[in-house]
Amino acid sequence: MIGGSAAVTVTGVSAGTAHAAVPASPGVTYTNTIAEQRADLHIFKHTDGYYYFTATVPAYDRIVLRRATTIQGLSSATETTI
Q1: Given 8, 27, 41, 45, which residue has the most CB atoms within 10 angstroms?
Q2: What is the rounded CA–CA span in Å between residue 36 and residue 14?
Q3: Per the confidence metrics, is the pTM higher than 0.85?
Q4: Domain that includes residue 66, residue range
Q5: 14 phi and psi, to 5 degrees?
Q6: What DSSP designation does 75 have?
Q7: DSSP states of 2-37
Q8: Residues sharing a CB contact under 8 Å with residue 54, sequence separation 6 or more, in sequence order
């Protein structure tokens, strides 16, 4: 409306706050296929052709490093504490 005011009525909304119904969803479990019991993962492919994997251990008191020529190979690569 030009030069006037229009009143709008909205139901289900109070004091400017709208709440949408959120459907319940089941919890999701993820299994890391590269390294069990590791957190803060980082994988980097270096120009030398190797994939480098770093992560923290469950005690969060050290960082480990693995190296392999394939991402899949990181799961069985020897782990070194750095």
Answers
A1: 41
A2: 48
A3: no
A4: 39-81
A5: -125, 135
A6: G
A7: TTS------SS-BTTB---------------SS-TT
A8: 41, 42, 63, 64, 65, 82
